[in-house]
Amino acid sequence: MTPPQPPPLPTAELHVHIEGTLEPELAFRLAARNRIALRHADLDALRRAYAFRDLQSFLDLYYELTAVLQRPEDFTDLAEAYLARAAAQGVRHAEVFVDPQAHTSRGVPLEVVFEGLGAAFATAEQRYGLTSQLIVCFLRDRDPAEAEALVPRLRPYRDLVVGVGLDSAEVGHPPELFERAYALAADEGLHRVAHAGEEGPPSYVWSALDRLGVERVDHGIRSLEDPALVARLRAEQLPLTVCPLSNVALRCVPDLTAHPLRRMLAAELAVTVNSDDPAYFGGYLHDNTAAVTAALGLTPGERQRLAENSFRASFLPAADKERHLVAVAAAARATASGA
Ligand code: ADE
Ligand code: ZN
Description:
CATH class: Alpha Beta
CATH superfamily: Metal-dependent hydrolases
Radius of gyration: 19 Å
Structural class: alpha/beta
Number of helices: 16
Bound molecules: adenine, zinc ion
């Protein structure tokens, strides 16, 4: 029997792709609504496709299913479903990735994406007690000039968009190719993060830090291969948004018991736990925390540290961070006393 799991602590989700929250049932519902034929005959056939060899094999399905997202209401339904699930798992603030080029490249206007997502985000605090903003990711396997052209187009959406990121197929697409896009984003006052060290080598993490000026690294698990990099990340307390179930599903680590999170905590890195693409990898934020707690035997103190790190690493104003940190401490005390 598995031991009883502690309830979720209030947490900030800092690494979730909105397109990666598309559950198979919703994919079929939107396909029917938009009269789009999916390659998969039914739900079972689609679920069977959720066995990945690596990042690219996942991305192939992830981009294929974005075809069902056509109209603003499709994006609203997608975001509403995510926000409801996230709130039920203790998420109090979410900085959510979106891949606009995955949509504009198939003829869906940028306005449709932002209007649709924005409608759901606008009511999330009132409905679920959860604040939310977007981080616009550049697709690193496309021409960097596209990313550079995207930056000024974000101006009308500054209330919604808090920063830029870098995602998609990592190996062969190093961060420095996007130096100009990130400089433009910095000039616009946008925060900067990037996926690095998921499948790619530690040199990509160095490049994200030194050439892109990132404030957080997404994944970053391969940083452990480079002691000088670990020393730098520790000294600067530069946050790493770690996604345990994703790393297993994409075979970046063989299984959860071998996950480097415990070693990252022991190295005093500013790690957080996140869900990445929860509809594809078997769980939302607390599912990740609970799984890694069981597999690695994390202590209540370590779980509290992960939750605290998430708010400290967020792009929230200082007063909001403080308010959330007080709530984490209160929830951790209540859990310890069995309340
Ligand atoms: N896009 C969606 N999920 C991703 C991941 N885990 N790595 C890179 N790009 C992604
Ligand atoms: Zn990711």
